Amino acid sequence: MRAPLALIMIATAVAVSGCSSKGLRDIRPQGSGPDEFGVLPVKPLTQPKDYAVLPAPTPGGANLTDPNPLGDAVAALGGKETALVPGQGVPSSDQALITASSRYGVPANTRVALAEEDAAFRKRQGRWTRLRLFPVDRYEQAYRKNALNPFDQTEAFRRAGAATPSAPPEDE
């Protein structure tokens, strides 16, 4: 009677362990998803003074909430907010900003190239680890060799004479 009960308990434990959530550590793509660089922070919405007289919609144009998103982005990078007019290119006053940000070159297909390189890297790293009885952290598994040990780094900086903040104990 003990053997079947033990087998049932082990089978239940294996079945329940597959229900855990990996959260952000599951690095496999879940779909095409949104473009994280296409999301612009906007100003708060405002209530119109008169609902009977509303402006006509301008698809692809400026809006009342965020009239100059490109100018706001230029200002955040250190340029002049009013200098950038959509469709007129980069003004000469911001040419130094463009030169500094593209000093190492700007390939046109950066996002695609990085995605392909990362997929190939993860595939090489996970060649012998595809079959697992229990869920594993693929992120930690793939990038284990690239991870820094924070405690070793803190000690190295302290030995070099750099002031470092206190760190939590290693067993936490």
UniProtKB/TrEMBL annotation:
Domain of life according to the entry: Bacteria
Region named Disordered: 153-172
Cross-referenced InterPro entries: DUF3035
Protein name listed in UniProt: DUF3035 domain-containing protein
Organism, scientific name: Ruegeria aquimaris
Biological classification of the source: Bacteria, Pseudomonadati, Pseudomonadota, Alphaproteobacteria, Rhodobacterales
